Amino acid sequence: MINTGLISIIVPVYNVEMYLEKCLLSICNQTKKELEILLINDGSTDNSPSICEEFAKKDPRIVVIHQSSQGVSAARNTGIKNATGELVGFVDSDDWILPDMFENLENILEENNCDISICGYARQFGDEVTDIRENNHFLTLPQEESLRELFRGKIYRFALWNKLYRRHCFDNITFPLGRIHEDLAVSYKLFLKANRIVNTSKTGYIYRTREESILTTKFHKGRIDSYKAWDEIISTISKVYPQLMDEVWLRFVWWSLDNVQTILNQISDKEEANEQFAWISREVRKHFHKIPKLKQLSWKVKLQLLMINYQYYISAKNKKILKGQPT
């Protein structure tokens, strides 16, 4: 049963005891009071489950669901399955939100008769939060233009957490299990369910860049799984909105270049670097002949793309050479 006027907020939780209390306080203290707060404990081994239960004792709006560790996609799927709100939002458990985020998102959604509303976000580095914007200027876009901006990535991006959705956007849509970059695989599908979206410049979400992650992050082999999502995106958008393919190809190019740069920066073992580069090269070669001569690309970027296609990438900056091998 769907509850009109209720927002279901889905929070996947996994080993975030250092940050969880601030996150949950920021949700519980929202100016929008009609909330259903779904905490999906995905097999945490630290004190996170106890923190969730303590908050649930104090706030009847909180529902705690414990499951074995299956990943963030599974946790979000559990949240969607159990949500009863007419509207759905997401908060990552190491981030936090400003007090009026969901009230503002709901207001602009209803006032503009939209299916998705989006707010600005700021980043937190240590104790410093940057770029909080108070201006509530908003932009409404029909479906085609909203998708165009999604792939352009200048106004908003694929992330789920700074958005509010009407429940019907999730009809017959689930997050892919066992993959990272699940936002990439799902966001465009949600936009295809929305007749109109509205975006506000006002900051509502604070994305935490965790210092320990910066120091310990290594290239995640799951990055290669993102190309499964790209295959789906390319197939779908080329059929539904072929006029948007320039934006799709451009985002695909930047995504691939970013992955190559991550390999150069984060993999010191030459054999492993070549192995991961080979996967990316294979995916780029698969679509290379379809990528038009994009005017937005500089000669330098075109050269980098050409090197990926020919499986031989030279980086003067990193003083490294990547060679694609058969996979």
From TrEMBL:
SUPFAM superfamilies the record matches: Nucleotide-diphospho-sugar transferases (SSF53448)
Q: Does the keyword Glycosyltransferase apply?
A: yes
One Gene Ontology MF term: glycosyltransferase activity
- Which one Pfam family would you cite for this protein? Glycos_transf_2
Q: Which Gene3D superfamilies match?
A: Spore Coat Polysaccharide Biosynthesis Protein SpsA, Chain A (3.90.550.10)
- Give start and end of each Glycosyltransferase 2-like domain: 8-171
Q: From which domain of life does this come? A: Bacteria
Which controlled-vocabulary keywords does the entry list?
A: Glycosyltransferase, Transferase
Q: Which family does it belong to?
A: Belongs to the glycosyltransferase 2 family.
- What is this protein's name? Glycosyltransferase 2-like domain-containing protein
